[in-house]
Amino acid sequence: MAVFKLDNVEDLYEIGEILGSGHFGQVREVRERATGTRWAAKFLKLRRNASSRLGLERKNVEREVEILQALQHGNIMALRDVFENRAEVVLIVELISGGELFDFIAAKESLTESEAIEFIEQILQGVGYMHSKNIAHFDLKPENIMLSDKDSLLPDIKIIDFGLAQCLTQGEEYRSMCGTPQYIAPEVINYTPLSVATDMWSIGVITYILLSGMSPFQGDTNEETLRNIVEMNYEFDDRHFKQTTAMAKDFIQKLLVKEQSERMTAEECLLHPWIKPLTKKQAANRKRSSINMRNFKKFNARRKWKMSYNMVSACTHLSRMQLLCKTRDTENQELRQCESDQEDTETNRASLMRRRLSSSS
Ligand code: ATP
């Protein structure tokens, strides 16, 4: 068992304002007493005993720490130090002050495809780096893509929240029942082995939303969304994609591929002509096309509203569905038997379940 520093974190850091809340604790700004440097501290509550439902299992915290320790990249939140006491583990991490990428974009009047690509390229660099170390994030979604500093003209992307990340070992299968319906890949719903390609699917969904303000598989209920994903039921509706280049659509199409081995890898994405144009014409097209800002603002407002609206049922239903799915014969049968649900937001209980389920798979 890893032992973290036992010092009292408050002796070394002055605790400041709350920056955000996760399902297992808060993230606060802190100031290092010795140097005056500002950091963020992620307080993770530990489960007191095996029968308790509150808090995180220590082994899950250790995994998150080990993964962050293994990752040193400009587009990934850096870990500085780890402290523990009986009740919690405190991660001292790089302070990321630019907020979420989607909020930054939604505040703009307009954005060309080339400007959007600058961000996507950085996401790909961070994800490509973690994949080169066989680490998969498994929770890529707009909430986990932040910016270093929103005052800069082109802020750096910072990928956060490695709570569901896994270091994949060759020859070992990893299955999971976790994620947010809109962003999960078919292999998650089908409870078949996951891989780093599972993250690439999520990048396809994020890119689709970024360009159109529409979520590719979104149904009226979570069940419908999940069905759309397993049936690959999505399209590039002309109304929402009229300003989008063919190259951008090609990029997305090569990520929203059911078969994991056929999806583009992060490395391949970085060489795709939409990201790295081969001709002047391709480069010019990207500058002329713009993202659907009206829709995007609407999408983001709805996303923020859903985030603040605590609903318990979604993930619980997802997990229950997936448990059912494991034992059912056909996909159609599986989906028919599932209960309907309203939204795909996660809550304390839902996340608790998702982490517990993920750690047991
Ligand atoms: P979840 O339960 O959603 O998995 P979590 O408990 O793992 O969340 P994070 O997602 O890592 O927690 O952080 C919660 C929130 O705190 C983020 O959405 C973000 O707003 C804020 N936050 C996290 N890390 C930082 C950071 N390094 N700098 C600034 N704010 C941060």
TrEMBL record:
**Residues annotated as region Disordered?**
336-361
| SUPFAM superfamilies per UniProt | Protein kinase-like (PK-like) (SSF56112)
> Which SMART domains does this entry report, sorted A to Z?
S_TKc
Cellular-component GO terms for this entry = cytoplasm; nucleus
Q: Which organism is it from?
A: Megalops atlanticus
EC numbers, comma separated: 2.7.11.1
Top EC class for this record: transferase
Read off the lineage from the record: Eukaryota, Metazoa, Chordata, Craniata, Vertebrata
Where composition is biased (Basic residues), the residues are 352-361
Name of this chain's protein? non-specific serine/threonine protein kinase
Q: Which Pfam families match?
A: Pkinase
| Family under the similarity heading | Belongs to the protein kinase superfamily.
**Swiss-Prot/TrEMBL keywords:** ATP-binding, Kinase, Nucleotide-binding, Serine/threonine-protein kinase, Transferase
Gene Ontology molecular functions: ATP binding; protein serine/threonine kinase activity
